C-alpha cells in the first residue's frame, strides 16, 4: 500500500519533469527527529571533495511522505530493527557468558561511534567498519559466532548503534593510516564500471537532483545507513547498496565486506563529513 | 564481410544470432572524425515503429531513462540526464545519429551515454544485470545492428 502511494507520487513528479526545465533538485525542507533531534541534512562540502560544493543527505531527494516518515520514530519502520537489536544487546551469547551489555552497559554508550566509521584499527593494522568491530566483539570477547555482513542481526545492530549518534556530524579520518584506503576508494568512485560504463560520480556527483527514469538521484551519501527501503521493506547495509549500484551498471560487483567496498565506504563516508548521522533512515 | 556471408550460408541453423551478408560487426564499425557512421549496420532499412519500442523498453535501449521525448509522452518516467531528443532528426544527419547510438563517445568525448554497439574494452564487465562476471572476452552488444537502425529511423522522425 505504502509503496503504491509513493510510486504514485513519484509518477506525478516525474511527469512534471517531462515538462522540461521543471524543478527537480533537493527538496527545500529540514529534518527534526521526534521534535527534538536536529539533523544537518545539508552543509558545505569538505575541502578535499573537488566535485561538490554543497552536500545533501539522500533524505532531500525523497518524496514528502517518505521524508515525514523519518521525522518520528513511531513512523520510521527502521526503528523496529533498532528495537530488535536492543533485545539482542543484553542477550548472553557464546562461550564466555557475555552480552554486549556486559562490557558496554547501555547502547547510549555508543554515541559518537558511527561518526568515525570506518576507521583505521591500530591493533589489527587495517581499515575497520562497524560490522568488523561488532564481529570482533562477538568472536574474541563473547566466544560467539560472527554474524554475516547482511544478516538481520548484524544490520539491526548497526541500526541501533547508528541511532544513538543521530544528530552528530559524520567525521571520518581521511589522513594518516587511512590515506591509502581513501585514495583507493576515490579511484573506485570515479571508475566507469560495467558495460554501461558508469561511475558513482556520473550518477551521484554530475547528476544528483536529476531523474534517471523514475529515480530521483541523490548524492549517494551514506550518513543515513542502514537505510529502511520501502521497496524491499527491510533495512539495507551500505555494502549491499554499493553492490546494487554497481550491478546496475552491468558490471561484476564486489562482495559485501570485501577490501574494495571497505575502501569505497571510507571514501563515500568522507564525502558526507559534516552531515548528521541519520541511521536508520527511510528511503524508497 | 565475406567470412560472415560464408558462415551464414554454411551454418544458418547453428548461429544463435543471425549474421547477414551486409551486417557490420561491432568491432568493424568505421566512425569518421566527428563520430558519424555512414553505412547501415544491418544493411536493412530501419523500422521506426520497432525503434520506438527499443527507445522505451527497459530491457532494450531504455533511452527515455535519460532523455525526455515529447512524442513518447504516453510512456511514463522520462529522465533528465541527457538533452531532450525533440528535434534530434533535424539537428543531426542519419549518419551522425547512427554514430551517437552505436558509440556516443566517438561524438561526445567521455559521454555518460552508454555505447550500444560495443563489445570490448570494459572495466569489470558483468553478465547483464546479474552482478556476476561476464564470460568470454567479447560481450554481446547492448543492441543488435537492426535495433540500432530501427532507433535511428525513429530518431529521424523527430523533426523540429
CATH architecture group name of chain B: Orthogonal Bundle
And the CATH topology of chain B? Cytochrome Bc1 Complex, Chain D, domain 2
| Integer average pLDDT of chain A | 92
Structural class of chain B: mainly alpha
Q: What is the succession of H and E elements of chain A? A: HEEEEHHHEEHHHHEEEEHHE
What coarse outline of chain B follows from CA principal-axis ratios?
Answer: globular
Distance between the termini of chain A: 13 Å
Quaternary organisation: heterodimer
Q: What class do helices, strands and sheet pairing of chain A give?
A: alpha+beta
Strand order of the largest sheet of chain A: 10-9-11
3D shape of chain A: globular
What does this structure look like?
The complex is a heterodimer of chains A (about 280) and B (about 160). Chain A has helices spanning about 1-20, 65-70, 80-90, 100-105, 130-140, 150-165, 180-190, 200-205, 240-245, 260-270, and strands at about 30-35, 35-40, 40-45, 55, 120, 125-130, 210, 215, 225-230, 235, 280-284. Residues about 1-20 of chain A have low confidence and may be disordered. The two termini of chain A are about 15 Å apart. In chain A, about 45% of the residues are buried. A 3-stranded mixed beta sheet of chain A has the order 10-9-11. Chain A has about 280 residues and is of the alpha+beta class. Chain B has one domain (about 20-155): Cytochrome c-like domain (Cytochrome Bc1 Complex, Chain D, domain 2), CATH 1.10.760. In chain B, about 25% of the residues lie in helices and about 0% in strands. In chain B, helix 2 (about 50-55) crosses helix 5 and helix 4 crosses helix 5. The model of chain B is unreliable at about 1-15 (pLDDT under 50). The interface between A and B is medium-sized, with 32 and 33 residues.
Amino acid at each position: 500500500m505504502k509503496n503504491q502511494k509513493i510510486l504514485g507520487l513519484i509518477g506525478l513528479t516525474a511527469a512534471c519533469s517531462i515538462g522540461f526545465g521543471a524543478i527537480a533538485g533537493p527538496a527545500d525542507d529540514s529534518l527534526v527527529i521526534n521534535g527534538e533531534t536536529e539533523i544537518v541534512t545539508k552543509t558545505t562540502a569538505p575541502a578535499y571533495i573537488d566535485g561538490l560544493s554543497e552536500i545533501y543527505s539522500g533524505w532531500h531527494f525523497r518524496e514528502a511522505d517518505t521524508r515525514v516518515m523519518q521525522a518520528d520514530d513511531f513512523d520510521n519502520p527502521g526503528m523496529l530493527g533498532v528495537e530488535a537489536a536492543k533485545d539482542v544487546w543484553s542477550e548472553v551469547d557464546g562461550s564466555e557468558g557475555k552480552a554486549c551489555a556486559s562490557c558496554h552497559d547501555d547502547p547510549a554508550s555508543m554515541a559518537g561511534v558511527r561518526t568515525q566509521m570506518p576507521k583505521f584499527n591500530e591493533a589489527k593494522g587495517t581499515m575497520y567498519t562497524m560490522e568488523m568491530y561488532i564481529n570482533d566483539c562477538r568472536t574474541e570477547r563473547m566466544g560467539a559466532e560472527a554474524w554475516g555482513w547482511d544478516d538481520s542481526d548484524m544490520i539491526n545492530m548497526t541500526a541501533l548503534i547508528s541511532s544513538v549518534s543521530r544528530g552528530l556530524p559524520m567525521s571520518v579520518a581521511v589522513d594518516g593510516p587511512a590515506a591509502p584506503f581513501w585514495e583507493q576508494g576515490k579511484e573506485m568512485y570515479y571508475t566507469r564500471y560495467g558495460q554501461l560504463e558508469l561511475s558513482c560520480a556520473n550518477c551521484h556527483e554530475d547528476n544528483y537532483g536529476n531523474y534517471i527514469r523514475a529515480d530521483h538521484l541523490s548524492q549517494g551519501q551514506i550518513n543515513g545507513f542502514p537505510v529502511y527501503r520501502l521497496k524491499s521493506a527491510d533495512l539495507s547495509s551500505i555494502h549491499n547498496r554499493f553492490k546494487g549500484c554497481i550491478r546496475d551498471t552491468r558490471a561484476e560487483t564486489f562482495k559485501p565486506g570485501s577490501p574494495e567496498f571497505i575502501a569505497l565506504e571510507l571514501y563515500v563516508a568522507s564525502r558526507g563529513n559534516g552531515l548528521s548521522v541519520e541511521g536508520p533512515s527511510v528511503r524508497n | 564481410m565475406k567470412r560472415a556471408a560464408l558462415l551464414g550460408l554454411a551454418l544458418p541453423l547453428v548461429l544463435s544470432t543471425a549474421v547477414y551478408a551486409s551486417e557490420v560487426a561491432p568491432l568493424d564499425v568505421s566512425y569518421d572524425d566527428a563520430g558519424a557512421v555512414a553505412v547501415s549496420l544491418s544493411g536493412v532499412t530501419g523500422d521506426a515503429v520497432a525503434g520506438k519500442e527499443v527507445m522505451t523498453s527497459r530491457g532494450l535501449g531504455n533511452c527515455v531513462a535519460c532523455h525526455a521525448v515529447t512524442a513518447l509522452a504516453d510512456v511514463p518516467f522520462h529522465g533528465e540526464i541527457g538533452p531532450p531528443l525533440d528535434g534530434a532528426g533535424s539537428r543531426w544527419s542519419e549518419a551522425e545519429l547512427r554514430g551517437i547510438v552505436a558509440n556516443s563517445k566517438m561524438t561526445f568525448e567521455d559521454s555518460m551515454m552508454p555505447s550500444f554497439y560495443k563489445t570490448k574494452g570494459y572495466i569489470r564487465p558483468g553478465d547483464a544485470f546479474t552482478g556476476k562476471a561476464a564470460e568470454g572476452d567479447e560481450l554481446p552488444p547492448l543492441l543488435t545492428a537492426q535495433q540500432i537502425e530501427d532507433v535511428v529511423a525513429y530518431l529521424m522522425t523527430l523533426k523540429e
